[in-house]
Amino acid sequence: xxxxxxxxxxxxxxxxxxxxxxxxxxxxxxxxxxxxxxxxxxxxxxxxxxxxxxxxxxxxxxxxxxxxxxxxxxxxxxxxxxxxxxxxxxxxxxxxxxxxxxxxxxxxxxxxxxxxxxxxx
Amino acid sequence: xxxxxxxxxxxxxxxxxxxxxxxxxxxxxxxxxxxxxxxxxxxxxxxxxxxxxxxxxxxxxxxxxxxxxxxxxxxxxxxxxxxxxxxxxxxxxxxxxxxxxxxxxxxxxxxxxxxxxxxxxxxxxxxxxxxxxxxxxxxxxxxxxxxxxxxxxxxxxxxxxxxxxxxxxxxxxxxxxxxxxxxxxxxxxxxxxxxxx
Lengths: 121, 197
Hints:
The complex is a heterodimer.
Chain A: H1 2-26, H2 36-65, H3 70-92, H4 98-120
Chain B: H1 3-14, H2 18-39, H3 43-59, H4 71-91, H5 100-105, H6 114-117, H7 120-131, H8 135-146, H9 151-158, H10 162-188, H11 192-196
């Protein structure tokens, strides 16, 4: 642990010293303009940030378009409840015959289609 | 630029058009840097404030309204606000009276206060200490910290390997630190001007 602490202290002190040296050496610069590397890197980063914001804004707009109305939500909820109830019911009566299981599955699919249809419309 | 073209460019700016923004940022960075340097003669702080201003502008791109004025005026407002924030931050910090050598002693562990960096004698000390280093060490320090070049670019310019650049940088940093401490102690004892004229 102590060794790890030493490593951490060493790396922190190296970066701190490096940072301080960097700030000091820059004082020796007589130019009144920032260096080219700084300018280029800042332009690229700022444009990247701008692009990110534009993408986020577009996504937000898309979410507004895809917003589901209350009746669609209600339909979806009803369909889900129906599916769960039918599935439970089918487990209970599964021992009766395979014909019944086919009916249950068909109803489940129909319910799902109704739900998806509601979302699309 | 004609008025109509200018207005179109402002609208493009408000729509966060990348090309218009690229041109605008490229034009504004030196102006903002000069503005911050006139307020506090500290290149690192000026870079930090320019970066903050540009990012604040990019984040608030949607809030720019062309009807209220030009993008230049808008970004100047952001810059002025950042100056106010920095001044407020400084006002709440403890004062930095004392010898430069005291701060240089703690160079490995504590950040150098901006107020110390902004003293005229600090810049003079750095220039003096740098001039006493070997030519290669001066070159590598200037390339890395003033020109902001990466090790591979320095290696290409100096025609040495990247590993050699790292090793040279390491040695140059140690030499500069020693020279700074030596020069600062001379300065504090009042012997600096006797030895440097």
